[in-house]
Amino acid sequence: MEARITWSGAVSMANFKDKKSFENEDFISVLPKESNGYLQWVLCDGAGGSGVFCKEWAAYLGDHIPVNPGLIEQQSLTGWLKDVSGAFHDEVIAHKDLSDLVLQQKVYYTGSYSTLCACWIDRPGHEIFFCAVGDSCIFYFEAGADGYELEYLTSINRQDHVDAPPDLLNWNEKTQQQLPLHSLALEREFVVVMASDSLAKWVLLNLFLMDFASVAGFFSEPFLASLQEAKYEQQKMNIRLGSGLKTVGELIGFLKMASENDEKFELAMIMLAGGDEMDVDDYSLLIMEGNVS
Amino acid sequence: MSSTNLPGPANQSLPGSAQTAGKFQTTIKTVGQPLKYGTRVTSSNPCAFLIMVDQSWSMTETITDNRGREKSKAEHVAMMINEFIGEIILTCQRSDGMKNYFEILLLGYGQEDEEENSIVDILWEGPLKGKTWVTVDELKKGALRSETITKPNPSPYGKPMLEQVVQVWLEPRGEGVTPMNTAIRRAVELLEDWVDDHPDSFPPMVFNITDGLLTDVNYFEELLESAEMLKKVRTADGEVLFFNCLLDEAGDQQTFPYVTDGHLYKDNDYHRALFECSSVIPSNLKHAIGRPLERSDDVKGVILEANIDTVIRFLKIGTYTLKSNVI
Lengths: 293, 327
What we know:
Chain A has 293 residues and is an alpha+beta fold.
């Protein structure tokens, strides 16, 4: 028995309102070729609203994430981040023109922020690994008797408010945080969705509308209360009247179709944001479907 | 954009796709009602801060902040406003230059003209003199004075010492009486001009910092009437937000009270009026007030009997809004 990926899509776009495509601060990568039996998907969302050179930092993080989670114990993953931070400063920041003292101040006082979302699949070991920091999200669904069910999600559920400032990775921090690594055994058909924050919140609102009870257990009471604030009540209403998806299967189908190519993704995101179902933002989506056979 | 697909079985069906395909192919549509105070801040949709500063004589009184610095109220307030502007410039600094995410206007009331009449006036001096609303790029280039200092680098990387530029846009002043009501009326005109040019932006925020009783009304109803006029100015995203900070070192500070706590001010008509004329802080900005809320009630954007250090918390509503709403 081994895990098989039957379908995979990965798309990313800059916010369509006032950014050009090269200004997209999200980074995505897929390593479809196995490395010691592992497949890897990565999404890093550079938080340009908070720091500088966040696009570069997100790409550097994503490019340098280890391809083999089997080598990673929590401690060494943290050590990895420290090494990557130093290398990013020396290879990227040190070569920037920082003659503008305000820019220099922002570089060394604020640094660069990014989320990190990584997923690895050990095919022969039929095991899946997740590492996520920030409000980009990984949703893991398994097929059950009544369709797909959410089995795991990370990491927006560590926040106590949907719009609380997310925990982000910054090369400039003296004390680098511990990185979480979680694994699950793959036993049946599964779907993994990785989405940057605004799209992840839209997925979350859909899941709450479809089956509140099965999702609520992943979140704290204050987080759940924050989803009842006016903004999110309005977005839920817009979702009901707009895209109107009824089941997790429909939701996954929609996301798969949106991830087929750039044009479909752009159309889908414009439709959802235009209908005020979610915020205008850079959007990224990675989705994988597989089974164990 | 990029797209990657792993090979999968040929002609594989997409679950749920049939139901959604029709909707997926439709073009942009809008359903439901637009959200208030939800517009993201962009260069094409900047937000606006109007800071009203009391420059009356009483602002020359000396007070001590929590770091033991003894200065006049006017000096403290000017320093905090300069730091606020500096922080906003830093927020708008991007890798590739400044982004004009906000426009600002400083409006003073209390300083005297040549005939010793207390007046209301826009406070830009030096390179910005004569301007009304100023973009962040203009601010960065248009300081009244600048100084380059050297400070230790807080980062574990880079040089141990860094040069840093400290800029000043507002000098302290204190003379005359307190024509706050006239200032609010002037603010209404300036805000109307701004929203005409930015009809879809996040609504402007007005921060009023004063230390005493206004002197240009006979009844507090006049103040409330002016405040209502100001709060009626709106963009498509909501009405202007009017926040007030009343400095009074001797008092019992009340920061951002609940809207249901108006009865607490029944014995002080001025406090009651400032409470009434202040906007409710939108729910998505409540994080900015810097304290946990014990109740789910809304809170008013007002600080009464504030000590000088609270001005920073007061202005933080602005920086929080900017940081949390910038795309």
